[in-house]
Amino acid sequence: MNHSVKNGRHYYRAWLLISLFFAIGADALWCASLTMLNNDLQGTLHLTKDQLGQLEVIYTAGKLFGWLAIGAILRLINRSRCYRSLLVIYALASLAMMVTNAQTIFGLRLVQGVCAGALLSLAQAQLFQQYPRRIQPMLQMGFAIVAVASTINLQTYLQALFVEANAWRELFIFPSSFALIALLIYPARTHANPSSELSKQFIRFIPRYSLLAAAIYSLSYLVQRGERWDWLNNYWLRWDIIAIFTFAFSFALIEYFSKVKLLRWKIFATTPFAFGVFVSLVAGFALFGSTYLIGIYTLSVMQMSFIAAGKAIVPGCLSFILCLYLAAYFIQYRHMNPIIAVPLGIGLIIFAVYLHSLQNNQSGWLDLLYPVLVRGAGMGFLLMALTMITFSAIKNAPMVDAIGVFSACRQLGGLIGIAVIESYASQFKIQAQSVINGYLTSGSAHLEQLQTTIVTAIQSAHPSFIQAQQLNQYLLNQAIQVRALTITYNNAFMIIAMMFVFAVPMIISVKIALAKLIKT
To answer: Which of 57, 216, 361, 455 is exposed most, by the fewest CB atoms within 10 A?
Structure first.
């Protein structure tokens, strides 16, 4: 009898693991879908750039809300029923995108964002709750490969394939298929239903859900499109910041005086979790910021095609997976303290962005290979260490809340990183062009001689002298623009490196302070 029960438990865990990974894979495809389809949506559905930006804001806000709200939702409905419902909604929303129009796409994108955040938190929480702690490093390695590697490292390559295939509607077949497979193979098991008294609390959660959603949307609007804002002088952004603080303060006030909390705030009483949440903000800044920079740099400065830019980032995915495995192996089988991998990962990322800052428009694929490999290795060590440190002291019940908060903070750090880098690049590029133009027009005999030589060479192809001068001026402007972009993005890479240099002492101070605070 015990043998059959043990076999049944093994079968249940095996099918559950496959189902969870298919659900995570569906979200991985969705994360990159909007970036892939910007040009196609703009042409087919006649969406403006402002509407495309609004789609990104809605999806990000929905995902953040799903991460933070899933813990309270699970206290109201059965976990198995919640998981199945999310998969069904996810699949239907994916299929609906194939026949969507400009009026319905915003609502579908919101539904997809909420389901994505809730599914990710629920899937990772079930990995911690349904499987022994001794094998968690390897399980979390698999989760990171599917959820992180495919979205951060393979996004550009997938984008290139679908752009060149010119088939954007067919993309939505894949996430819907993954969600349906996850639903069909999810093993049936009876879970305890929430108490009727807790279910009655839903009506009391509605004001807090609304305030939380409003605060998240306002924050997503602020940080999602950083290159478009004049942060200090924009009138609307001042009101947006006021709205963020108003909604957040109102939510915190109601939450503080409520008997039944929307979030389990006691998770912050554990030192590892509080430390991991703080570091996740810094890690998100570096991971998402560097991913954005590498994609822009390869296309605009190194002038690679979509396929070449995508292939250039793939080796980083391989080194990321390898170092994830190494970290998981040493933590699980050699009982290494995960904190050891944190400085190693940070050091590798700093070195990688420094190598990126040395590139220019003459660099090729081989020049980009080494920094991409080093960056992937640093990401692997840092992410595995953070995951194991953050959730080491969290018990089963509040695990979903803890994962939601951790994931939301990492995403928020990434959004802030991209917004800061976009704003810096858009402003510094103009300054760099002005400086270079001023240097070239100040009067240089070597420059005049070089331009005369170029005009003479152009005239040898039999255009008129005026056409040759115009073409010469165009080539000069192009060279100035490429050089300004090179300087701008090289400095942006150094910003990420310097951010880590200043953040490391803060991380150490926070670790010491939290340890002393919780001991007292």
So the answer is: 361
Q: Does the residue 477 lie in any domain?
A: no
Please write the tens of the pLDDT for every residue from 359-414: 877 777 778 888 989 998 998 999 999 999 888 878 776 889 999 999 999 889 88
- Please give the structure tokens belonging to residue 225: 């499109």
419: domain CATH number? 1.20.1250.20
Same domain, 380 and 511: yes
User: Does the pLDDT of residue 163 top 60, yes or no?
Assistant: no
Cβ neighbours around 10 below 10 Å, total: 10
**Proportion of the chain in helix, strand, coil states, percent, rounded to 5:** 85, 0, 15
State the distance between the two ends of the chain, measured CA to CA, in whole angstroms.
Answer: 49
- Computed on alpha carbons and rounded to an integer, the radius of gyration of the chain in Å comes to 25
pLDDT of residue 333: 92
Do 354 and 378 share a domain, yes or no?
yes
Q: Are 442 and 456 in contact (CB under 8 A)?
A: no
* Distance between CA atoms of residues 40 and 31, nearest Å: 17
Average pLDDT over residues 189-217: 73
The pLDDT of residue 234 is 66
> Number of folded domains in the chain?
3
Say if CB 118 and CB 73 are below 8 A apart.
yes
Which has the closest alpha carbon to 420: 292, 298, 241? 292
**Within a domain: 214:** yes
Identify the domain containing residue 156 by its residue range: 1-201
149 & 289 share domain = no
Structure tokens at 377: 């290795």
Same domain, 414 and 512: yes
Other C-beta atoms within 10 Å of 457: how many? 11
Residue 77 tokens read as: 């409905």
Q: Is the pLDDT of residue 138 over 90?
A: yes
pTM above the 0.85 mark? yes
In a domain, 287, yes or no: yes
